Amino acid sequence: MTNPISDIEGADFILAIGTNTTETHPIIGLKVKKAVRHGATLVVVDPRETEVARLAHRHLRLRPGTDIALLNALAHVIIEEGLYNREFVESRTEGFEDLKEVVARYTPEYAAEITGIDAATIREVARGYAKAQNATILYTMGVTQHICGTHNVFAIANLAMLCGHIGKPYSGVNPLRGQNNVQGACDMGALPNVLTGYQSVVSEEVRRKFAVAWGVEALPEKPGLTVGEMIEAAGRGEIRAMYIMGENPVLSDPDAEHVVHALEKLDFLVVQDIFLTETARLADVVLPAASFAEKDGTFTNTERRVQRVRKAIEPVGQAKPDWEIICLVATAMGYPMSYGSPAEIMAEIARLTPSYGGISYERLEKGSLVWPCPAPDHPGTPRLHVEKFARGLGKFHPVEYVPPHEQPDAEYPLVLNTGRRLHHYHTGTMTMRTGALEKHYNQEYLEINPADAARLGIADGERVRVVSRRGQVEVTARVTEVVPPGMVFTSFHFPEVAINKLTNPVRDPVAKIPELKVCAVRVEKIA
User: Fold this and answer.
1) Is residue 52's pLDDT more than 90?
2) Quick one: pLDDT at residue 370?
3) 450 φ, ψ to 5°?
């Protein structure tokens, strides 16, 4: 996020695109509700009529996967009507003429044909966003989990820079992270092409710095593989062993049957987790990890805020904190790792990571800090790009609309869209074991529009079979107008409805994120 969570409630205009905020980020959803109560205009872009969509002044029910056409059309109107922030564009950006040339083709009438949103509404939303004193954009995986996910984000950034709604309070481009420490994991180099603080592995200077610190001759200079690429390589026999920590790809990855086959083909699989997940059941060795309540450490949340996690109880049974397990395994493999505590690890992070340079356990005991925090006396940086962008000038990236990889046809006439539910979390590894949440939402449903249900002879509460080119699952139908005709929706929380057996593994060529949000399916009534 470019801005702190607290800024949301002060915005005059909120554009929430590809995010079911009140269910998937309920605390941030409270900020959205507060902003609306204070008079903010809320526009929600989502095919489904979610709770946050019902709160909105405008709900744009676009066709799945058509975000770029809509965003480009908004930019078209803003430029055509002279509503863009000329001073900001001229002094703080580059590439405006290239953007202008591309979006000129995306008239509201043209975008209406692609998105299903009428041209008048597109013009109204464009004017509202451009004229607002402070406007914020919120988005999540409804934007990124497409074959054009990176370009979707470019289109959002284009819109924010065009209107100067960045680098100031109550505005910005604000992706809401999907899990509590996913930001921290990325910050610490849990990506194939960077080390901590997004320092590139292709930089000889960066590699040398880490090699000296870790007492090794050299580090690999070639970026590694993403999760999807690793699974594919395992399926081809090119990866023979795998170590999975806190991840359940058997349920969370697309084309899940292929994931199982790939993992079974490995010579050796290690899974480190707090429960025996569906993935852990395939492992040769399971290493029991400690939960958040059983260890010390830090979490870095969606607004880049680093917060202390303090151990409440000792680890149960043979469980150990993740860092201790890694140290033991590394030492057994011939590389002695002898960290004495998480505080010692954080001190090394600060030495090697400029954006975390001023963060220490001593400071975190007094309160959280937001990176970049480059020095011990630095207060942290709640808002990014206040005076300039990290690269100097913000660069417009013109992008073209690309349709989803898989389109409905006679055999698979419906679009399957997936997401999350309020009461559950990710693959249900934790929330299916509470004894309470399961009672509030104890089974999964397939949302299907009444028109589609009537055509297929499906009644509310009946069991149906959902089939794609990759697999099939059975689930209970919920006939509802929450979803538009031609689209069905369910979550990936429930192991008994392993919906990712159906989803498409085709990936964005840049970020390598799979197109989990759109695939073609048919729904069959079970006799």
Assistant:
1) yes
2) 97
3) -55, -35
pTM, two decimals, is 0.92
310 occurs within a structural domain: yes
Q: Tell me, what amino acid is at 268?
A: F
* Model confidence band, residue 424 (pLDDT cutoffs 50, 70, 90): low
Distance CA 127, CA 15 (A): 12
Handedness of CA 185, 140, 146, 50 (dihedral sign): positive
Residue with tokens 């959902």: 466
Domain holding 69, by residue range, is 5-176
What is the residue type of 313? I
Let me know whether 210 and 86 are in one domain. no
| 369-370 β-sheet, strand order | 297-300, 305-309, 369-370
Q: Output the CA torsion sign for 128, 131, 134, 136.
A: positive
Res 500: pLDDT = 82
> Which residue reads 């680890």 in tokens?
315
Pair 117, 146 in one domain = yes
User: Of 502, 525, 496, which Cα lies nearest the Cα of 428?
Assistant: 496
28: Cα within 13 Å, side-chain hemisphere: 29
Q: What is the rounded distance in angstroms from the CA atom of residue 144 to the CA atom of residue 18? A: 8
CA–CA gap between residue 263 and residue 471 (Å, rounded): 18
Residues 100 and 123: their CA atoms lie apart, in Å, by 17
Domain's final residue, options 267, 288, 309: 288
The single-letter DSSP state of residue 175 is E
- Token pair in block for residue 52: 């946050």
CA dist 451 and 467 (Å) reads 19
Sign of CA dihedral 59, 62, 66, 72: negative
Per-residue confidence band for 425, with pLDDT thresholds at 50, 70 and 90: low
Q: What's the burial of 182, exposed, middle or buried (CB within 10 Å: 0-12/13-18/19+)?
A: middle
- Determine the 3-state secondary structure of 389 from DSSP: strand
* Both structure tokens of 27: 């605390």
* Confidence at residue 178, expressed as pLDDT on a 0 to 100 scale: 79
Tell me whether residue 189 is in a domain.
Answer: yes
